Amino acid sequence: MNGVLSWFTDPAHWRGASGVPTLLLQHSLLTAAALLLAVLLGLPTAVWLGHRHRGGTALVNFANVGRAVPVIALLSLLALGFVGSADLGPFGRAGMATLITLALFALPPIVTSTYVGMTGVDPEIVEAARGMGMSELRLLRDVELPLALPMVVSGLRLALVQVWATATIAAIVAGPGLGRIITHGYDSDSPSEVIAGSIIVAVIALLLELGMVLLQRAVDPLPAHSR
Amino acid sequence: MTPLAAPTTVENCLTRNEWICGAYYSSRAGELGQALLQHLGIVVVSVLLGLVVAFPLALLARRYRRLEGLVVGTTTAIYTIPSLALFSLLVPLTGLGVETVVLGLGLYSLTILVRGMLDGFRGVPAEVRESAAGMGYGAGRMLLRVELPLALPTIMGALRVATVSTVALTTVGAILDEGGLGDLLVDGQLSDFKAEVLTTSVLCVLLAVALDLVLVAAQRVLTPWATRPAA
Question: What is the third-level CATH fold of A18-220?
């Protein structure tokens, strides 16, 4: 434990290309960019499919396949294959391969939760809105989407936690980010460094989860006690 | 390991570092088989561990309302911690061996299984419980003969999710050289060995699919009254 504490207080670990701030920035940038990519691709698709009540089975299958593919496998295949392991600007080494991997792993939770949220809207409410003469677009924007929002955010929460974890694993094979503190610790036989890196990654993961839970509550159009 | 099993004078798919390579399969079949078996062993033991711990936890959480929040909250928090960090944080407790990987994976499957069990029990209709109680069923017999069979499809669904994710997550055990196929996968990536990376990746997915099919079959046998297992 003393070793871990002195690792944290050593200023050398807080500067330079392998210092915590640089790796944290890489890790956060990767997570945010991958999440954004997945949202841009997955959200409109799932909202539309959910609105039309179509393609549910395909989405479930897609999510199941995603669960079966190891992160390391996809990343390795991309890094050795056509994407390559070249650096990508601020994303660091194997940036493109890592980014694509993370975005792909963020897709299933976003898509399935959004779809479930959209199809879970009370059909009587939808019928009432149609009866009032709402256009499909207004129905989608003003009725279905707000009611599905807590589920959409729930999907984002799962995706965020997933991407944060996946970005950590990326360091085992090629990737940038905070996981490199952990892998460097193993490579240099330094248990303190391994533990310190793990604590940083785990604490931020828990904070992200907590923040998303609060956001999920905030966006719910129906107060908890009315359900 | 570098792809130079053959003498340099011989030109083959190993020296050309091709994705698909018969010479690799024939020369490393033993190594692949061993890794596959280790992978399977880790998955089975981890999920069983999760199952054994999850069942009493789910029963406790169901019995005592206040415990439910604690159990679900704690397991969710564990699930949030990235696998690489969780394995590493367990090392001081359980060492650098395979036990650490099994314990970590068991903790992840625990989260999925506890939730599945609680959902399954919650789905048992109150009227069914009342009828059983009226017929003189005690708590123990009610659980085994009424509630568990009715909750089984949901629990089996959770078991499938837990098993398939555990197959994929086992590869992270490569950080401790105890990742089954993951060890070869990482080795292949670090030494730029395409056939090794593709073969081990495909084997991982096939193992997940095979175990999933086994569980689907088990569910059909266990719940013959259900026409179709829950997706």
Answer: MetI-like fold (1.10.3720)
